[in-house]
Amino acid sequence: MKYNTISMAFMSETCTDFYICDINIFSFSGVRKKVIKSGEEKYDLTIVKNTTKSFKVDMLCPVCNENHSFLIPQSQFWSGTVYTYACPNYEANVLFIGENSELKKTVSEYLDEELSYMGKSVLLTDTRNAESLSKLLILSESDAKYATICDCGKADIAYNDKFIYFICNKCGKIKRITYSDAEVITADFDF
Length: 191
Ligand SMILES: [Zn+2]
Ligand SMILES: [Zn+2]
Fold this sequence. Notes:
Elements: E1 5-11, E2 18-24, E3 33-36, E4 45-49, E5 54-60, E6 67-73, H1 74-77, E7 83-86, E8 93-98, H2 100-119, H3 127-142, E9 156-159, E10 163-167, E11 174-178, H4 179-186
Antiparallel strand pairs: 1-2, 1-8, 3-4, 4-5, 5-6, 7-8, 9-10, 10-11
This protein binds zinc ion (ZN) (2 copies).
The site of one zinc ion has 7 residues, from loops.
């Protein structure tokens, strides 16, 4: 099925919500580039129609603070099927594209799952995970930059058996990392 209007959802700066916008096939008549506004200019989404029958979607990833570029073939872009694009550095979905109602359903399911995970607090039974976490806590105590995810300063650290979360109590931004991420971050330090 081919649509004239599809929707896109891209992660907001707090990492706990998505901006959803509609893109019409006529949005690209006479122009190749379209900028979709977010709440904060640096997180705006840029869509460029390529001559190679594809769209290049650029975004500043709120999870890892790097720019990501996703190349989407035109056939896929207008198909209506919901496609999901993930941050290459962390286990997080940052962009969705597809037919409006299906897309909204997929995004809300994704957020529900994410947020339900966060609420669970557990005792870490995996000793390797427990060690990575305690190293990360020590490291962030000695240098706040290891727990800084926004301009507000040091974030709080929460965790469950699957993920470690940095949570800013001022702006609400949340960044999630895995235990293997924590292991990589703390690998170069002697404890
Ligand atoms: Zn990223
Ligand atoms: Zn903040």
